[in-house]
Design goal:
heterodimer, A: 163 residues, mainly alpha, 434 Repressor (Amino-terminal Domain), 2 domains, globular, B: 131 residues, alpha+beta, 3 helices, 7 strands
Chain lengths: 163, 131
C-alpha cells in the first residue's frame, strides 16, 4: 500500500512531521528526502510517525538512522547482482570493512569530527555514527559524499566491499 | 523454491558476527540448516510452529503482505533471540536479521522490513547469493 494512494491528510501529516524534524535541527535535504520517500513507502511513513511520537532522544536518533538507511535503499532503482561471497570469507570481510571504516573515521576526526561532517554532507549525525560503528558494507554514494565534503582522494575511499 | 540472500541479510549478518552476537557454530548447526528448510516450504512441520515461524505484523498489528519471521530462542552462547525476516515470493528472500530487543526496536525493524519487501516487489535490491 502506498501512502500516496491514501488521503491527502496523510501527506499533510507527513509534512508536519517533516517540519518538526527541521525545527529540531535535522538537515533540510534529509527532511525533504524523508518526506518524499514516505509518500511512496509505507514503512518510511511508519518510521516518521514513530519519530513524532517518541520523546527519548536516543530512540529518536535510531529512527533517524533507520530512515536514512531506507532513503538510500529506495534510491536504488534496479536489481543488482552483488558479489557472491563464501561463508568462510565473512570473518575476514567484516574485519576488512571495520579497518576501512576506522581509517576513514580518523580522517573525519582530523577534519572536524562527525558533527562537522553531518553539517557539510546533510547526512544526519545518528546515521553517520551508525555507519562508522557497523561492519556492514558501505554504500558507494555515502563514501563519495564523505570524500567530497572532506576533500579526500578516491584512493582514500577505495574499498572492494562497497555496494 | 530458492533461498535468496539479499544485501540487507548479508550486512546484518556481518554486523551480528562482528558484534559477536552469533558465531560460526550457531550458523552451521542451527541457522543454515533451518533456513534451508525454506527450499521445501511449507513441507517441514516446523513451519506450523509459531515459535519458529510466524507472519510479520506492523505497529498497527496489520499483517504485512508476503512477510514472515523465522525465530530462534536462546541461540548460541549468548543465548540470543534472533529474528530473520523473510519475504515469501517465487523465491524466499532473506532480509535484515536482528536480535530481538525492546518493542520499539522491533517496530523499527519491521518498518524497514515492510519497505524492503516493497523494494523486492519492484526489483530494486541487491542479490548477494543463494543458499
Amino acid at each position: 500500500m502506498k501512502v500516496s494512494a491514501l488521503k491527502s491528510d496523510y501527506k499533510v501529516e507527513l509534512m508536519e512531521i517533516g517540519s518538526a524534524m527541521y525545527k529540531k535541527g535535522l538537515p533540510s535535504s534529509f527532511v525533504a528526502a524523508a518526506v518524499e520517500t514516505a509518500f511512496e513507502f509505507e514503512g518510511v511513513y511508519d518510521l516518521m510517525k514513530m519519530w513524532s511520537e517518541e520523546t527519548d532522544k536516543k530512540e529518536r536518533d535510531e529512527v533517524i538512522a533507520d530512515i536514512q538507511d531506507l532513503i538510500d535503499d529506495c534510491a536504488q532503482k534496479e536489481k543488482v547482482e552483488g558479489t557472491y561471497i563464501r561463508f568462510d570469507d565473512l570473518e575476514s570481510i567484516a574485519k576488512n570493512i571495520r579497518q576501512f571504516k576506522d581509517n576513514l573515521r580518523l580522517e573525519v576526526d582530523n577534519k572536524g569530527g562527525l558533527g562537522n561532517l553531518a553539517k557539510i554532507t546533510g547526512i544526519p549525525q545518528p546515521s553517520l555514527s551508525r555507519f562508522f560503528n557497523s561492519a556492514s558494507m558501505p554504500r558507494r554514494n555515502m563514501l563519495v559524499k564523505i570524500a567530497r565534503a572532506l576533500n579526500l582522494s578516491q584512493v582514500q575511499i577505495a574499498t572492494e566491499w562497497s555496494k | 523454491m530458492d533461498v535468496v540472500i539479499t544485501q540487507w541479510a548479508l550486512d546484518s549478518y556481518l554486523d551480528l558476527k562482528h558484534g559477536n552476537k552469533i558465531d560460526d557454530q550457531a550458523y552451521k548447526t542451527t541457522i543454515r540448516p533451518e533456513v534451508l528448510l525454506l527450499k521445501t516450504y511449507p513441507a517441514d512441520p516446523r513451519f506450523k510452529n509459531s515459535k519458529f515461524w510466524s507472519i510479520a505484523t506492523d505497529r498497527s498489528n496489520n499483517r504485512i503482505p508476503d512477510g514472515y519471521k523465522m525465530k530462534w530462542h536462546n541461540l548460541g552462547n549468548g543465548k540470543i533471540q534472533l529474528r530473520l525476516p523473510v519475504g515469501m515470493f517465487t523465491d524466499a528472500m532473506l532480509c535484515e536479521a536482528y536480535v530481538k530487543g525492546n518493542a520499539k526496536e522491533e517496530q523499527r525493524k519491521i518498518a524497514k522490513f515492510k519497505t524492503h519487501l516493497e523494494l523486492i516487489r519492484r526489483g530494486q535490491f541487491i542479490e548477494c547469493g543463494r543458499l
